[in-house]
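Hi V.,

You were right to ask for the full record rather than a summary. Here it is.
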Amino acid sequence: MEVYGSKDIWLWGENGKDTFSVAMVKNLIREGMEDRREQLMQWETWIPMKVNLFVWRAEMERIRTKVALMRRRINVQDGMCSLCDSGDEDVMHLFTGCTFSFGVWLAMGKWCNIAPIMAFHFKDLLSIQDQVPGCKWAKKVIRGIVMVTCWALWKARNEKVFQGTNPKVVEVVAMVKSWSFLWLKGMSKFANIVWKIGLLIRCI
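Predicted structure:
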């Protein structure tokens, strides 16, 4: 080893000739990240921020399902789905594989007058609006209702886990309908919509 009396300098890049900067380090870290996810979730303005955040986290599997808690070595009684008691409770099962959730999605498809909502992955739910004919506002409404439904299912799950309730499909469906109507009427340009026979009707 040789020691020189010159001032120390930073060497950066493949040949040690590039100028060092913090920005270059950040770019290098981003390029080397293995956990790259294609985000399908689109933020919806007529939905409360807490619901947008929840769906965003759910798509990344960052919500506290039983499987997620067990991965963090948090003690839970069992990993079975809280709503149907069948299958491990992860994001994919809770929202697409659970028989309770399936009943809710069927009801929501009928209410929205669209084809039955069939999903095999959480990301499938985030693209339901692409299968709906109509203008961009029709798609925005369907996308929002899907998000509200996910939120209602999670609320029902938490109430059963923490309060010991016994949720029913019809009750969750009713929550989705009422929240969707109130939020759409109060937080969008569709302030003139009315409720008629369980459907959202926009007054022209």
